[in-house]
Amino acid sequence: MANQLHRGHSPHPVTFLKPTNADKETTPERKTHFRRNFLDYLSLRRTRSQNSIAEIGLLDKEIENQEISPKALQIPLKNVLKMDSRVEATPYTWPHDNTFKPKTTALVIIDMQKDFCSPEGYLQFQGYDITPMRAIIPRIQSILSSFRERGFPIYHTREGHRPDLSTLSSRESVRSRNNAASFGIGDKGPLGRLLIRGEVGHGIIPELTPLPNEPIIDKPGRSAFQHTEFGLMLRIKGIQNLVFCGVTTDVCVHSTMREANDNGFDCVLVEDACTASEAGLHKSAVEMVKTEGGIFGAVTDTKKILEALKGVGRVAEGEGKGKNVAFDEKQGEDRLAYVIANTYS
């Protein structure tokens, strides 16, 4: 007896042989059939029924030399996590090589610190309304939570200078005071000295507090790659795709994204999870990313990236029903997944 599921990108169905019971010996025919369809199943995006049930057993790679009696786990097929996925984006589906997974992709949250996102911080002394910065916090929270649940690497950045101002150029010092209040970097405000490391205003807002395993990149300028170890950290971890959100779109987000692009990373900007001091600057910055076929990367939104994340995650092995189970790419050379599907209309 066999059941059919649709392939992710093919009009032809994927067929899995269904034994009469979970303890039936796996025949050579069944092994061959499984191998032929295994990768198709991993790329499966949907099933025809929301109530489909899958029985999954993890088998040793010596599958060819032994009889198999898989210990079945029952879960809704809609909860089976794929090895990787892609994000609906403009002007191309991101990432370009279909490698959206924790092993290769990181979330980068740019400068969501009190000096930019809280009243009486640096940005308000520059004469700007921080309402747009506050508005994106719930969306970034949703993205951050989903990335954490699925085991993605996460990096936070903060812009700020050493207390002795040895990282502050004379031009930047003058520029920062070119406002109605004549307040600039290093001056004392309600949250401490503006954009100075260690001050209250330099800290990340409590809604997005980094976890101990989430590195914070302290940068003296706009790009997170300049005068930091960020690039080295990404290379050592094998990251090749970066998801960007935060503030401000036209300055620190754009500067970091452009340099990431020049360093060979495939970048996507979450349009509604970043913002600028002025709406026009945000809009222009977003459009610049998409020109020339995606000169600096691609653009998506919160809804689309959360939808893509539903199909990506870490393996959760366990006994009994109700477990979220996926093929773990780290076990790719040592394990196989034996999938038997039964679809109910």
The percent of residues in helical segments reads: 25-40%
Contiguous uncertain segments of 5+ residues: 1-24, 38-83, 315-345
Terminal residue distance: 17 Å
Shape: globular
Going across the biggest sheet, name each strand in turn: 9-6-5-10-11-12
Mean pLDDT: 78
Percent in strands: 15-25%
Radius of gyration: 24 Å
Element-by-element helix/strand order: EEHEEEHHHHEHEEEHEHEHEHE
**What is the tally of helical segments?**
10
* Major sheet summary line: 6 strands, parallel
- Number of strand segments: 13
Structural class: alpha/beta
How would you describe this structure in keywords?
single chain, 345 residues, alpha/beta, 6-stranded parallel sheet, 27% helix, disordered C terminus
Kindly describe this structure.
The protein is an alpha/beta fold and 345 residues long. It is 27% helix and 20% strand. It has helices spanning 28-42, 114-117, 122-125, 131-135, 137-149, 170-176, 230-237, 249-262, 279-294, 302-309, and strands at residues 2-6, 13-17, 53-60, 73-76, 105-110, 154-159, 188-189, 192-193, 216-219, 241-247, 266-275, 298-300, 335-342. Mean pLDDT is 78; it is low at 1-24, 38-83 and 315-345.
Give a short synopsis of this structure.
This protein is α/β, with parallel strands linked by helices. It is built from ten helices and 13 strands.
Layout of secondary structure:
Blueprint: E1 2-6, E2 13-17, H1 28-42, E3 53-60, E4 73-76, E5 105-110, H2 114-117, H3 122-125, H4 131-135, H5 137-149, E6 154-159, H6 170-176, E7 188-189, E8 192-193, E9 216-219, H7 230-237, E10 241-247, H8 249-262, E11 266-275, H9 279-294, E12 298-300, H10 302-309, E13 335-342
Parallel strand pairs: 5-6, 5-10, 6-9, 10-11, 11-12
Antiparallel strand pairs: 1-2, 3-4, 3-13, 7-8
Helix pairs in contact: 5-10
